[in-house]
Specification:
With about 130 residues, the chain is of the alpha/beta class. Helix content is about 25%, strand content about 20%. The structure holds S-adenosylmethionine.
Length: about 130
């Protein structure tokens, strides 16, 4: 998935979607690929969104970089920003391992922790 692609797809479907990422580089690419859409640098550990201001949220392969002790705060931010009953979709690696990733795609040097997790009881929501 290229940066900004999901927000762009949702906008094509008529959803007023925007993107937030910790990485200024990711945001720069998203803005370049999808001019006119809203992309902002920000952290889900300090989510700066008004209470009950969004009708849904996706966090795909990003919680994997948040350490265990910060997960409750992140989920609290999501809960506060989402309207009551709004869906939240989390995508993450399933497992018990954590490791330090030192190479990005294309061999670029990086230093980022990856945390696998176990899903809780499955709840299927359809709409
Ligand atoms: C594996 S990429 C996934 C990118 C995108 N969500 C996707 O599905 O294609 C992980 C992303 O999480 C972002 N990230 C890591 N920690 C974050 C945080 N605390 N808040 C927001 N984004 C974060 C990284 O900058 C990176 O762009």
């Amino acid at each position: 998935m290229r940066s900004g692609e999901v927000a762009a797809h949702l906008n094509e479907l008529g959803v007023d979607a925007f993107g937030i990422d910790l990485s200024p580089g990711m945001i720069e690419v998203a803005r370049r690929n999808h001019p006119g859409l809203r992309f902002e640098v920000g952290s889900m550990t300090a989510l700066d969104l008004p209470a009950a201001s969004v009708g849904g949220a996706l966090a795909w392969q990003s919680l994997i970089h948040v350490p265990d002790d910060e997960i409750p705060a992140v989920l609290g931010h999501f809960h506060r920003a989402l309207r009551p009953g709004a869906p939240l979709q989390l995508l993450f690696h399933v497992g018990d391992e954590s490791w330090l990733k030192t190479q990005g795609y294309g061999g670029h040097p990086m230093k980022v922790h990856v945390h696998c997790r176990q899903p809780g009881p499955t709840r299927v929501v359809s709409w």
